[in-house]
Amino acid sequence: MKLLRNEQRQQNSPLPVFPRQLYFFYEKSTGVAPFHVVAGADGQFPIEQAAGLLAMHCMVRGQTPLDYLVMVQAPERILKGLTEKAEKLLQAWHLVSPVQLTRREEDILDGVLRNLTNKEIAASLNLTERTVKFHVSNLLSKFHVRGRTELVREAARRTTVPMALPQPPVTQSPTHTLTLDMRQRPAEES
Fold first, then answer.
1. What's the confidence (pLDDT) of residue 187?
2. Considering only the top CATH level, what class is 90-158?
3. Strand order in the sheet with 68-72
């Protein structure tokens, strides 16, 4: 029996030989791909293996198979130039749609840019922590980002708010209470 390399098979075989594809299982709610399966030697989707892995993940995470989406990796030749074109479109979109912030959102964003926690921002602006969380959530939505790190990056690119330099975290010093004795003291004799 003679073994053929992939290149020889492609030259000798009338059937095209495709590289093995990866099938990624994405959680719909998070966009995370906790696992993937590799196509069989015949290029077919390995249904038994995939079903076993999917059932196991669902059982461990308390989910259902409907919580997942299966995606296939696209060949490089199809994706050629995709990133560059998407970046150009994104830059054009940023130029025509600047983010409009309220005064309070600018204040909150300034605190986020200075790497302050919600609690520290709330204390500095005399707000509740819940109010700060509300405004941070609005900022994440307006900038179309998922977290504070992405928010800082996008805010630096898209706003005219001056970037504050990161400062060391504010530390709370212990408060001292001064107690005054208001009882009458006898007048001192001179």
1. 54
2. mainly alpha
3. 35-38, 22-27, 68-72
Check the CA dihedral 60-26-93-152 and report its sign: positive
DSSP 41-108: TTS---HHHHHHHHHHHHHHHT--GGGEEEEEPPPHHHHTTHHHHHHHHHHHHHHHSPPP--HHHHHH
What is the pLDDT confidence band of residue 59, given thresholds at 50, 70 and 90?
A: confident
Report the residue count for the chain: 190
Query: What band does 165 get if pLDDT is binned at 50, 70 and 90?
Result: very low
Residues 139/132, Cβ–Cβ less than 8 Å? no
CB 33 within 8 A of CB 26: yes
Decide: 32 and 26 in contact? Cβ < 8 Å. Answer: yes
End-to-end CA distance of the chain: 123
The residue assigned the tokens 């669902």 is 58
- How do the domains of the chain map onto residue ranges? 16-75, 90-158
- Residue 180 in this model has a pLDDT that exceeds 50: no
Residue with tokens 């006898």: 186
Residue 50: per-residue pLDDT: 86
